[in-house]
Amino acid sequence: MDPITLAALAAAGLLVLSGGKRSGGSAPVEKFRAKTRADRIKYLDEIRSMSTWYSNTFGSMPYLADYLTVVAYIESRFNPAAANPEIKRNPMNAARGLFGQRPQYMFKEENGLEALKSRPNLIHNPKWAFVTAVFHIWDADRTVIRQTNREADWASIRRWWGYPSKIYDFDLLEEFSQRSLANLQDGIAGVNSDYGTDIDPNFVWIPVESAGYPGMDVMIKAFGLKKP
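The structure corresponding to this sequence follows.
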């Protein structure tokens, strides 16, 4: 392992130590439930702390903290135990967790986590939610660069989150894309108003800049998780 990666893991050890023992198991959902506003603020701060560490360590995705803060506000109001009502009829793949993630998109062959599809509730763990979300963003940006020779922006990442093929609709010609942008803009205004963040609405048009992503193995080790 190269010195840069070793240094990154040493820095991340601060996060791992603060989170207690390694978290590869299927912890009960209730362990992560936000019951008070103070709990929600704690998870908001954790999202921004993990994101800032990632961006500073790897020189990658400088607006990651803003994007994931807004998505968590929209999808869960900073409650890791949140789940789409669809979970009653689709327990294995309904969206859940801080960022409203579907297991089939987060645990897959491409990131080496396909074996975790049988444990979908791991996404309620904020660290699993984070490392899989970062891969999902990197995968989206890499896909757009490969197909169009341009980088994704954060508005297009949000489209990818809900309907991957719409990531290419940069001109916002489709109704889905227009709704996605409006939802994202409402989320920025909402989290700034409700939680006192100061997120610039214009960040959604900035390129993702995903180069520097270190790979899932490094991310898992850095955040004290266990790969299957």
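Confidence is low (pLDDT under 50) at residues 1-8, 12-26.
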